[in-house]
Write a structure and sequence with these properties.
The structure holds 2 protein chains of 2 kinds. Chain A is an alpha/beta fold. Chain A contains 5 helices and 5 strands. Chain B has one domain: Methylmalonyl-CoA mutase (TIM Barrel). The chains are: A alpha/beta, B alpha/beta.
């Protein structure tokens, strides 16, 4: 992995215990600068990250989360379509039995939509301009640093 | 570097923090793009002869501006990007902008339209009218432009892929229906398929071979029939938004422009026929002086490239014309009203740099589409600049500053190096195909964010001087279209389809198929104007062209070909 590890991210003490994260973009919007950069910075923080790409069907993201045995799934939005997609995705995620997967939503999102997104089933929402260390801290707190989730 | 806990820029810092703040020196002594800056610049930092290096405004190589009188002859065009909901919704907002003093219009479409899909495509319901306005038919274009005089307004149309010729054809069909000749229309269509490939749209939906063919069709048609229309607006802005620096913005966008020029020359256009019709859409980022230097460097490089490498003889071919979009990516949703200030500095850079047209981002850009009030403030920002600051009273007011001149030279050198690297790879098209461009964009964005995370780059309200979200001011957000509004839009399209004469639509589609089969050099615009008038939709016209160029009718694989 290129780049120097930023000082603000303490390295994971044990690579075997890396938290597994799956990121992607559903919907037709393809602005993915934010999510691509997030993927690299989460890796720098010691997590194992799979960026699935964009224009994904919800099912494809859920399948990947199952295949990868991911503890965290994140969707990125820019163009204002976050609420219906989050509601539909969270429903599908939980109905596939992935109740303990941490589901994060991020991107260009009005603050007043955050309660709606949380109510729709997101576990955390990070708007543009949030320092990545906040995302890292949230994931560490909610998932913990040890061990892969067993399916 | 300070850690968050001891950040002296926090308002509640202890006494030591106040003193640290008092004695604080700037940590970053580079431009926003990363070029090192010296403590002072002196005459010896600026080499060369005035005429050769700069020239007066209006004189080769145009470093100081393309017109002798610059804004004394005409203000820059004040146009704000606008598009949401249905064509009627956007029509209302455009009229509002004009009543507020906008001097041009700039319409942007939703993702389905941008990629050539009709609003009733089974995959796109959640996207209709979300990111821009929805447009599928010539009737939609009539609604969009209702009550607006096509021959009395400068119109900028933001659509870039192989959907561009169809949208343009719809605009021209409306003009024809109103009895206007094409030479009376004034405006721009973005029509930059290479940039479209990077900036937010599914690559499979925008095949480059077809995009380049139709881009040259637009260029050729407009160059010969529409003397006041700019048929290619090379989008440097979106590339910059992906994380590139100022020199890269020049290098990448010039490499794209060269691709279009080369294709158009192959088509048989003369350089002096096409070059005067090419314009650029540039970013104005937050580093005021670097941006001014960038615009000056772009003008000089363009003039020399066109004269010396392409042999252009008409001075209009040498004149680099550009619109500016202030940098959306420089804005943050934390303490959002601060964005008004950022936009004002960026707009100032555009005017000190000699832009022909300006879009100021609304302060709520990192939150949602603009509310009416946010749009109004963006226009007011331009008006304060135009009427109060005096920034436009004289051409190139920063010319002759040792620093500005040295930075202009430096950016030109850097940009030339980038152009050479792209040329060595066989040009921009090839550099895209190999993935090199993607990698450059990715690395640039990553480095940028690393610097933000390490606080080597300070962004006020985001990584310094932060307030907890619950104490931040909340601003209103433009709502997404309601389910009812989307269904009304789909009903409208269904009624249009039901009303059409099926036989003439089929005949029109067959005609397009036959004309598209006549090869790359056969211009499809006249045919497109006729067939959209006959009721062919955007998705249908794009589908026929896609098939003719070896791609699926519907890249999503959900709709069968109608032929």
């Amino acid at each position: 992995m290129p780049g120097i590890r930023p000082a603000s991210f303490p390295p994971s003490s044990d690579p075997v215990a890396a938290i597994k994260v799956v990121l992607g973009k559903v919907s037709m919007d393809g602005h993915d600068r934010g999510v691509r950069v997030l993927a690299r910075l989460l890796r720098d923080a010691g997590m194992e990250v799979v960026y699935l790409g964009k224009f994904l069907q919800h099912e494809a993201v859920i399948e990947a989360a199952i295949q990868e045995n991911a503890q965290v799934v994140g969707l990125s939005f820019l163009s204002g379509e976050h609420v219906p997609h989050t509601r539909r995705f969270a429903g599908a995620l939980r109905s596939r039995g992935l109740t303990d997967v941490l589901f994060l939503v991020g991107g260009v999102i009005p603050r007043q939509d955050i309660p709606q997104l949380l109510e729709a089933g997101a576990d955390g929402v990070f708007v543009t301009g949030s320092p990545v260390e906040q995302v890292v801290g949230f994931i560490r707190e909610r998932v913990g640093g040890q061990g892969n989730r067993t399916a | 570097m300070t850690t968050p806990s001891e950040d002296p820029r926090k308002p509640d810092a202890p006494r030591k923090g106040y003193l640290d703040a008092y004695f604080e020196k700037p940590a970053r002594l580079r431009t926003w793009s990363g070029l090192e800056v010296k403590p002072v610049y002196r005459p010896e930092d600026v080499a060369g002869d005035y005429q050769e290096r700069l020239g007066d405004p209006g004189q080769f190589p145009y470093a100081r501006g393309i017109h002798a009188d610059m804004y004394r002859g005409k203000f820059w065009t004040r146009r704000e990007v606008c598009g949401y909901g249905s064509p009627d919704d956007t029509n209302q907002r455009m009229k509002f902008l004009l009543t507020q003093g906008a001097s041009g219009l700039n319409v942007i479409f939703d993702i389905p339209t941008m990629t050539g899909m009709d609003a009733d495509h089974p995959m796109v319901e959640e996207e209709v009218g979300v990111q821009g306005t929805s447009l599928s038919t010539v009737e939609d274009m009539e609604a969009l432009m209702a009550g607006l005089p096509l021959d009395g307004i400068s119109m900028s149309i933001v659509v870039t892929s192989h959907a561009a010729p169809v949208v343009l054809a719809m605009y021209l069909a409306v003009a024809r229906k109103r009895g206007l000749t094409l030479d009376r229309l004034r405006g721009t269509i973005q029509n930059d398929p290479l940039h479209h490939r990077f900036c937010g749209y599914p690559p499979a939906y925008s095949p480059l071979n077809l995009g380049l063919k139709t881009a040259v069709d637009c260029l050729e048609f407009c160059a010969r029939q529409m003397p006041h229309w700019y048929p290619i607006n090379v989008n440097a802005y979106d590339l910059r938004e992906e994380g590139l620096g100022a020199a890269e913005e020049i290098g990448f966008s010039f490499a794209m422009a060269r691709t279009y020029i080369d294709r158009a020359l192959e088509r048989g256009l003369a350089i002096d026929e096409l070059a005067p019709r090419m314009v650029f859409y540039c970013s104005a980022h937050i580093d005021l002086l670097e941006e001014v230097a960038k615009f000056r460097a772009m003008r000089r490089m363009w003039a020399r490239m066109l004269r010396d490498e392409y042999g252009a003889r008409d001075p209009r071919s040498w004149q680099f014309k550009f619109g500016v979009h202030t940098a959306g990516v420089s804005l943050v949703p934390q303490q959002p009203l601060n964005n008004i200030v950022r936009v004002a500095y960026e707009a100032l850079a555009a005017v000190l740099g000699g832009a022909q047209s300006l879009h100021c981002c609304s302060y709520d850009e990192p939150i949602a589409l603009p509310t009416e009030q946010a749009h109004q403030i963006a226009i007011r920002t331009q008006q304060i600049l135009a009427y109060e600051t005096g920034a436009g009273n004289t051409a190139d007011p920063l010319g002759g500053s040792y620093f500005i001149e040295a930075l202009t030279d430096r950016l030109e050198t850097e940009a030339r190096a980038i152009l050479s690297r792209i040329a060595e790879q066989g040009g921009m098209y090839r550099a895209i195909e190999t993935g090199w461009v993607d990698q450059e964009l990715e690395n640039a964005a990553y480095r940028y964010q690393q610097e933000v995370e390490r606080r080597e780059r300070i962004i006020v309200g985001s990584n310094a001087f932060v307030v907890p979200p619950e104490q931040d001011h909340e601003v209103p957000a433009h709502p997404r279209p309601s389910v009812e509004a989307v269904h009304a839009r789909l009903d409208q399209l269904k009624r249009f389809r039901d009303r059409r004469d099926a036989a003439s639509v089929t005949a029109a589609l067959r005609r397009l198929r036959d004309e598209a089969a006549r090869g790359e050099r056969h211009n499809l615009i006249p045919c497109l104007i006729d067939i959209v008038q006959a009721g062919v939709t955007l998705g249908e016209a794009v589908g026929v062209m896609r098939e003719a160029y070896g791609h699926a009718w519907d890249p999503a694989g959900q709709l069968p070909s109608v032929l």
